[in-house]
Here is the input.
Amino acid sequence: MSKQAQHWEKTRNLLWVTLAIWFVFSIGIFFFGAEMEASNFRPFGYPLSYYMTCQGSLGIFVILIFWFANRQEKIDEEFGYTEREDD
Amino acid sequence: MIKGKFIDNLPKVYGIYTGGFLVFIILMAIAEQAGMSAKLIGIFFVAFTVSIYAIIGYLSRTLQLDAYYVAGRQVPTVFNGMATAADWMSGASFVAMAGGIYFKGYGYMALLVGWTGGYVLVASLLAPYLRKFGCYTVPDFIGTRYGGNLARVCAVLVLTVASFTYVTAQINATGTIASVALDIPFGIAVYVGLASILLCSMLGGMRAVTWTQVAQYIVLIIAYLLPVFWISNKMGAGFFPHLMLADEVARIAELESQFGLGTVKNSAADLATVPKGLAGITKAHSEVNTTPWKFISLAVCMMAGTASLPHVMMRYFTTPSVKTARRSVGWSLFFIFLLYCSAPMLATLSKLSLMDPNLPTGIIGKSIADVQAIDWYQNWNQANLMFISDFNGNGTLELNEFFMGGKAVVLATPEIAGLPYVISGLVAAGGMAAAMSTADGLVLAIANALSHDLYYKIIDPKAETKKRLIVARVLLFIIGFAGASIAALEIQGILGSVIWAFDFAMSGLFFPLVLGVWWKRANAQGAVAGMLLGLISGTAYLIWVRNGGAGFWGITQLTFGIVGSLVSLVSMIVVSLMTKAPDAATQKMVDEVRIPSGRTVLGKQH
Here is the structure.
């Protein structure tokens, strides 16, 4: 496999992982809104359904993007596809 | 004080600017104590901030193509994040969002999830690759990747439909705020708003819009957060309201049952006396009040729409590299997060200060006559944003007898909570900044697509730089004027048309953009089919549902993008597979786009 094909495969794998995490916190958990509300698991003192919509998911997205950017930069470095700094 | 290039001094320049703005707020506060009238304070706030933006716009004037279209591709990561956040957070986010959460609770908060989650798609699927491409506009990518003028024209069409729907709402919002703050009729205020928008973008294009948007972000975030923290501290809800929400949420639930939320229903005859556009609290604050599908479908539309709206995407064309484009998406979302996670706080604090009888500001349970005598009630009642009526005739204000407009949650809460008027002036300036920055980005996105893709690439490819920039500016003026004229007609609410814009963009552009990077086999015929059929089917569904159609799968007029984008995806794949694969040059171009290093596909000036 060529260098570029390998790079793309790793990039694609990272995309799937990123999208999977994104799916869980943007779509997955909201299938269970009523269950989250009824649950006694209330780490912040109020229903998890309300917490996730007002802060939780939003904050996770911020962290997820930075994590994704770091991982992608590592992949690019590994294959020598990093841009020149003076570019 | 400042030496060397402007770009190297950004933190210093904006640091001084922020300091200056804080000093201005303090001066206004002193002036208020000295007896300056509320009206004058409002005028000062709006006029002062708008003239600063205009000065930045003038200083950023340019005669260079890449400065005009992509701000010279030298906007640093964090500053581009701020500019994108201002570009993104519209008058609707600023003025209407807390109100929506206040009245509709959990079901409405799907918008919060959707409008932030979309950035994950932007970062992972699109922004870095489009930056590598080196395009000036979104149709520039579609036109070059798929080849042929037809694909380019289709992209311009979708972009114009989506962005224009959005921009009329934003000009409407600037008009609303300008008319309140400057005390002039709405019909005139719309054009005052338009003039301020054009001042920021006309001379310097993307470069001017970038630097004004950073300035606007600073104003709008101070204007949003300062009242939230102040109110929270004043009512003893804790120094950092975001971390201490639990007590407030529990207290509201307690008060809701105490005041009989949901047990006392208003009769239709009583409700008919309530002015149009005002609503009472009918839904419990933190209850899950919608079906999973309703919540998720709305969130999905907003996320896919985010990734397809051109005025957001084109902000990532302005960074120096692919790596910075990717990081910049993270910063954008961080700056957006600061405001979005505060909107529920504001809604909660606002509700608490009105409902809690232990607070001096609480009005529920007081006598009707007392409430009617309160200054702020009279003001906002006159502005048609507040209304009380003694339905049951017991002389006491019940929860079901209090009505408020959605905008009032942001605009009136500082006054209700007893903050000085200077804060209300600040909030008006913030709302103006939010609406102006988004309108600027949108007007520029449309005008650039028309001037670059339609005029230069198709009509007159030999046009010189000077001529191209003149055409770009004339178009900017025409688009802005058309938007203002439609806004002056006031045909639709602000939030409704914002959501439509996301659905339009998602219907026509989401899959053609994503598959352009991620599926080499996608070809021009497929993309054209995807864009046109997606846009047409989405629009048809919207018209059908609006005219009383039953719809299917629980898809409403707010989520018609699901229909449009599915049709777009299927038709794009089917047509692509039925026709010839893209030629070797195109395949190589896609390979090139997928790695960050090396030259951009399109040259620095094209």
Q: What stands out?
A: The two ends of chain A are 29 Å apart (CA to CA).
